[in-house]
Amino acid sequence: MDNYKEVEGKRVHDHRFGKNTMSTLARCIWVPCPVIIGAGPSGLAVAACLKERGIPSLILEKANCIASLWKLKTYDRLRLHLPKQFCELPFMPFPENFPTYPTKTQFVAYLELYKNSFGLVPVFNKTVVSAEFDDQCGFWRIKTLGLKQEETEYVSQWLIVATGENADEVVPRIDGMDDFGGPILHTSSYKSGLLFLGKDVLVVGCENSGMEVSLDLCNSNARPSLVVRDSVHVLPQEMLGKSTFGLSMWLLKWFPVRLVDRFLLLVSRFMLGDTEKFGLHRPEFGPLELKNRSGKTPVLDVGTLAKIKSGNIKVCLGIKRITHRAVEFVDGKKENFDAIILATGYKSNVPQWLKRKMVCLRRHFQEGGKVNVGCTP
């Protein structure tokens, strides 16, 4: 940060900001290059692309490491659900000795290697509390808090938001949760099914994480039940010797979405059977059309469906209420459980701190901004 202009504990009088526009701050830093919020795969990739074009950047990260979601909030058995060639970052493929679906440890090692290869040095432990475009001075003001709640404001012409859609856990409020008397945890805190050996565990949520956690519990000699409240597309991870995702992308080059969806569902029925028989009802729209319409991703089965068919994983309807060590479902059934795992996903936290929308930055570029690298969701 040697090239950054820093002003501590005083007002700023600067033609770029106007007279006395900034009140006394503990620390204010002028950044003459793009500010990237988030040191996950997207943030690292953007910083590398800029660097390849001779443009430096400043990466702000709220955690104490890169890829904090992968490092700190994922279960041990996690692998990439898509083949590695679809997940590599710009300018650097995965090592050749990595399997088709790299493990969590391998993916994190790849990201560390990527960071080091491009000489990226994120500023850690900086939680963005607000980012606002100042129309008067034409700059972004990014306010952060550190580990000791110290305030720092970064001022830059360009802002790049790379925090992804999985920043904060979604934890639903279910009637009676406080009365359960046993552990209720989000999948962000789940590491291994070995901690639940011999226990009855209810997994709430049937997307990729819920299905895979249920499989992990089953393989660890726990007794999982899976809440399937909504319809869901379950597809085999691979079809006809190719990854389902890769095959889908290739087919979309030649055929419309609905025709590709029909093909995927036909092959899935042949390979997996009728999922409706096991309580997994398919949505009205095909998997790709549904993804385009709602963003809901189909489940790529890695063995969970076989456990459901064999009865090792029970499928349950939605929850009506939770009682002491038990759950009552909407169909009137009531079962006892030792623990509940919420596979209820994540959400973006950008609306909490981004105060202005893209229109301000777009207007700035239209009026003569030099480097068009600013972006927000």
From TrEMBL:
<keyword id="KW-0285">Flavoprotein</keyword>
<keyword id="KW-0073">Auxin biosynthesis</keyword>
<keyword id="KW-0274">FAD</keyword>
<keyword id="KW-0503">Monooxygenase</keyword>
<keyword id="KW-0521">NADP</keyword>
<dbReference type="InterPro" id="IPR036188">
    <property type="entry name" value="FAD/NAD-bd_sf"/>
</dbReference>
<protein>
    <recommendedName>
        <fullName>Flavin-containing monooxygenase</fullName>
        <ecNumber>1.-.-.-</ecNumber>
    </recommendedName>
</protein>
<keyword id="KW-0560">Oxidoreductase</keyword>
<dbReference type="InterPro" id="IPR000960">
    <property type="entry name" value="Flavin_mOase"/>
</dbReference>
<dbReference type="GO" id="GO:0004497">
    <property type="term" value="F:monooxygenase activity"/>
</dbReference>
<dbReference type="InterPro" id="IPR050982">
    <property type="entry name" value="Auxin_biosynth/cation_transpt"/>
</dbReference>
<comment type="pathway">
    <text>Plant hormone metabolism; auxin biosynthesis.</text>
</comment>
<dbReference type="InterPro" id="IPR020946">
    <property type="entry name" value="Flavin_mOase-like"/>
</dbReference>
<dbReference type="Pfam" id="PF00743">
    <property type="entry name" value="FMO-like"/>
</dbReference>
<comment type="similarity">
    <text>Belongs to the FMO family.</text>
</comment>
